[in-house]
């Protein structure tokens, strides 16, 4: 029974070591995910800053184009000037179209990054939940190990007590046998003495 208890203790200790290794590995994964998360947030902030700068440049250029077009429309009236104005308008339209495409691309990138950040957050929450579960399991295993140790101590004490009781019992039996032998020896001596007396008579 003591051997079985030792095997169970060894098994519990092995499971506890495995859980500790898994726990350390999960902590490293959480730290790696947090680092990636922070990098994604910085990238998103950089994109937002770039987008804001582009919007400001677009507003400034639009204002400049509008002012230029108004000034040219007021000052120039011939056909060549009108063609030039049309060309400027065409270029402005192209710029507006490209700016709209860029804005849509930035919005799409934002959505993608938000989705990645959400996925990372969900993964971190899952790892934290797994960490809490592992901690609870570790605590339970430690309690089980303490209980097993207490049981082993109790069994060891009982075994020692049983051994002591048996030794006392055997010692008493030996003393009784010695007393019996002494009594028989005395009786034997007495009979020998009587036999010698009878032979003398």
Automatic annotation (TrEMBL):
Which residue stretches, if any, does this entry annotate as coiled coil? Answer: 78-112, 145-201
Q: Which domain of life is it from?
A: Eukaryota
Keyword list, A-Z = Coiled coil
- Report what the protein is called: Protein At-4/1 isoform X4
Q: What is the scientific name of the source organism?
A: Durio zibethinus
**Which lineage ranks, top first, belong to the organism behind this chain?**
Eukaryota, Viridiplantae, Streptophyta, Embryophyta, Tracheophyta
Q: What gene is behind this protein?
A: LOC111301762
């Amino acid at each position: 029974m003591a051997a079985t208890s030792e095997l169970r203790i060894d098994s519990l200790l092995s499971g506890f070591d495995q859980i500790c290794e898994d726990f350390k590995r999960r902590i490293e994964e959480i730290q790696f995910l947090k680092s990636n998360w922070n990098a994604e947030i910085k990238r998103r902030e950089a994109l937002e800053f770039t987008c804001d700068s582009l919007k400001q440049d677009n507003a400034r250029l639009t204002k400049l184009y509008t002012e230029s077009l108004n000034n040219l429309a007021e000052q120039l009236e011939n056909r060549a000037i009108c063609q030039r104005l049309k060309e400027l308008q065409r270029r402005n339209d192209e710029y507006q179209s490209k700016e709209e495409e860029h804005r849509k691309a930035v919005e799409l990138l934002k959505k993608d990054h938000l989705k990645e950040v959400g996925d990372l957050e969900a993964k971190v929450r899952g790892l934290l939940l797994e960490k809490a579960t592992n901690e609870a399991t570790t605590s339970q295993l430690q309690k089980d190990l303490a209980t097993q140790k207490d049981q082993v101590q109790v069994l060891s004490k009982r075994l020692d007590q049983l051994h002591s009781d048996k030794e006392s019992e055997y010692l008493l039996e030996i003393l009784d046998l010695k007393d019996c032998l002494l009594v028989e020896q005395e009786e034997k001596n007495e009979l020998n003495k009587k036999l010698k007396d009878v032979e003398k008579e």
